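Feature request disguised as a bug: please show the residue count (300) next to Transmembrane protein in the output. Example input:
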Amino acid sequence: MQTHDESNSYQPVSVSPRKVKAGPPLNWISGSIKLLRDNWGVILPAYLLVIVAPVLIQLVSFELMFRGSLITMVLIVSAIAVLTLVLNAGMIAVFHSAAEGRPRFTSLFAAFGGHSIVHLVLMLLMMALVALAMALVGYWIVGTADLERALFGTGYYGDAMSFGLGTQNFMLRALFVFLSVVAAVTLFAALFCYVVPLIVIAREGVFAAISHSFRASFKNLFVLIFFAVNVMALSQLFFFPLFTISASTASMSFWVVAMILAAIVWGAVLTGAYYLSFRDVLLADEPPLGEPALDTAVAA
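Example output, currently without the count:
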């Protein structure tokens, strides 16, 4: 696969949603650690810039935000949100260049092109519209099924404690609400899970990216859930010993520094694992990690 500097060239990679086995979630995390270890001189400075740049801009524009009009505040907050999204998208491109065997710090700016910014903003608008549509559907379901009265009405405690038909009805309605929320969250996550790398790395439009993200996510729904469970468990294992050690020193400054450094490293690992999941479930004919890509394949 012939690579290039994503900040100057935008030839897309080929994508093909496919199902992967249950093993990769653990491989994504270990593979990310390997990428970080082998390319820390590129990845960590890029990740630090992703964290620091939006914070510095917020500090610089803080006075302007609160002394200006409401429109000025909204524009500044929107600009900071877009910048943060664009930089995080570029971080995915940094991991892509590292996985291709040619790590480049300049890949961090791959999403600053017109195509990426326009479609990332469209993605934010689509996310807002989908969330609004789901909220309206949820409100309609609650209203038509009379769930509000069943869950929060005056007979709530009486129905729940009667151990009769009222209890059964309450439990069924509560279960329906829970499953509806889970289904809505799953659908929302599937629609937008891989949209950012599809826009920045595969150079797709927002609608094509949403379609591919949805297909890839549902093909690997249980694998992705397994990955999320592993991430939560490993996060506990990673932070709890640090928290215990830091607390035992009785030094607040040491605790803050240790937690910040741990959060930076773990955040970089998770970003890499997310990229590797995208690589496994969507990139077609991807080359071995850490090796130079073949010249005969599609440019990345």
